[in-house]
Each structure stands twice: as C-alpha cells, then as structure tokens.
Fold:
Amino acid sequence: MKFKRFLSIVLALTTVFSLGAAALAAQAAGSTPNPKIEYAYTTTVAPGTIRFTSQNTGSGYFYADYWGAWADKAKHECLTACISMALSYVGVSATPGYILDTGSGTTLNANSWGGSKYSSIDFNTAFNNYVNGQGRYSPPIIHLNSYSSGGHYVLVIAKLSDGTYQVADPYEDELWTLSISGNTVAYNYYGAKTDSLSDAMQYYYDNGGIKEQPEPTTPAAEPIELAFTIGSKSYVKNGLTKTLDVAPYMKNNRTYLPARAVCEELGADVVWDNAARSITITRGSTTIVLTINSTRVLLNGKAETLATAPEIHQTVHSVLWKRNPGNGRGAGRRCELAAEHKNRNDKSELIPKPGAISWLPVFFY
Structure:
C-alpha cells in the first residue's frame, strides 16, 4: 500500500523544509546602500562589492599578496588600503602593492587608477553620490585626526540612521560606527573622540553600474520514498535496501516504526533527553518535542495532542505509529511512503483524525 504523503506531525518536518541557496561569498553591510564586503582573498572585483583590505599583519584577513613587496609597510598604509577598497567597489582592481609600486612607495591618491576619476569634496555630497551612483561612485574616504597620533583613514560604507554611519577600518576586522553632524565627526575608539571633518576623497568610474543579480532559486528537493515491511529490519530508501536496528511491528491495530530511522532519513536531527524522557526532533525551523508515554507534543512550542503516546520498544527503541485504516492483513502489512517537500499551511493535517492515515514520531534510543 503506497501513501504519497504524511498526514502527521512528522510531515511538519518535511513540508516546511526547503534547501538553502548557496551562501554568498561576501557579507553585506548593515544599511544603505548595503554594499557587499568580500573578506576572502580574491584577485577579482565587481561593482557593488568592497574587497576588504587589511593593513593589520596580525589580522586573519591580512593577505600579503595584496601588498607584494610592501607588506612590512602595511601597518602605516591606512590610506593605501582605503583607496584599494574604494576602487574595488567601482570595479577597479588596484591592490595596495600595485598602488605603492606605481608611486615607488608613495600613495598617489589623485591618480586616475584604472581610468577612474578622483575628487575631493564635502562629505555629504560624496555620500549622496555613493548612495545614488549604482556602483559608479566609491564610498567616501575620511580622515580621523584623533584616531591615533598620526590620524587614520577609514571608508564610510553605510548609513544606519540620521547622522550615524558604518565604516570599514583597514586596521580593524569588525565594522564600527561613528556620528557625523555638519563638519563634526564623533566616534569611540579607545575613548570618546571628536574631530573636525575635512573633505572626503572619492573615486568615480563609469563601469555600467551594478549588474542586477537574479534572485537565487531554491532547487527542488528530491522526493524521499521509504518502504518498510512489518517484522523485517530491511527497508528501502529510494530503491536502496538498508537495515533497521529494530523491525516495524503491530500493536493494538497500530503499525510502529523506529522514529530515529525515519526522521533522520528525512534529514531531521533527533536528540534524546534521558532525564525528561523526551525526544526533540528538529528540521529547518520546525521543532517537535515528544515525551514517552504521553500524548502531549510541542510543535514549535505549541501544544498538540497525539492519538497514541510514543513508547520505547524493548527499552532500547521507540517508534512511529501509523493509524491503520484496514485490518493490517495482507498487503496492508507493507507500507511505502514518500515525503513531499513543499510548504503547507493547513495545520489540520498535522493532527490525526479518525479514519485518516497518519504517522507520528516517537523516540528511537
């Protein structure tokens, strides 16, 4: 007898599950205009993504290859690192090593790197260019006079709220915030500091703008079909024969299956709490908590009621039960089931009903 879906709480584990899209290599900054920041080593750049360049040789994001022969000088080259990051956002690949090679060890900030155009303008104008430029204008570079004895350059990459901005600091791995009001910048770096804000540095490059990326699609999950036979430890998953530790069995006109075998085959995590005599089954954002010999079950924290309580079989295993619509004889003793991976909002399907076919999870071991 084939059943093409679970009408059960165990189905909740599969129906809400979807395969995650591939993780982006770059992380996104906190707010407008949400640039991506590539912390991993890369030899390529793309408009809209900042290739993070660390000048701190003790950082896990310090890549000597970015600096070439100037790696030992990196700790003094915050401006060079910021220019490299700013240019990467507009699609110009200029590593700090290349910049320093070009200037024979001197940073030529006004150079037209890769055909870009340099400007020194007031911060608000520069930031508006950046926000509205579709990747053609770089994030503004500003100088913080009191950051250290010689001052320090940072890249202003996002606006979190009125007057509050997020910066990429080539000496620090973490993004941090500062406040700008008029020509005054306030920040906390080893103590509260306030500086006068001079003009910002910015690069423009007509790169055609940020290319719109298609929305990531979630690949369709391959259906899982499990076939069990009463009294046999052998079962079949998608045509492949496998072995259970305990065979399915009949009791009080119910068919019982080992819970861990079924749940883990469906991609769920199963954890046993010996003190509470409970089992927690988790898949994706769905969590089910059952207690041995209790019909009460928690589905994402909400109490539901089972028609039959979970039980431990031979003090080692516990099982899933199936409401048997027939007498359990003949062909009815073999059951095949397929888990369908799709969203379903009808919670009534999660509660067994008289005459319905349903599978309920209970403890395995």
In short: The CA atoms of residues 222 and 341 lie 8 Å apart. Residues 78-89 form the longest helix (12 residues). Residues 27-204 form a domain with the Cathepsin B; Chain A fold (CATH 3.90.70).
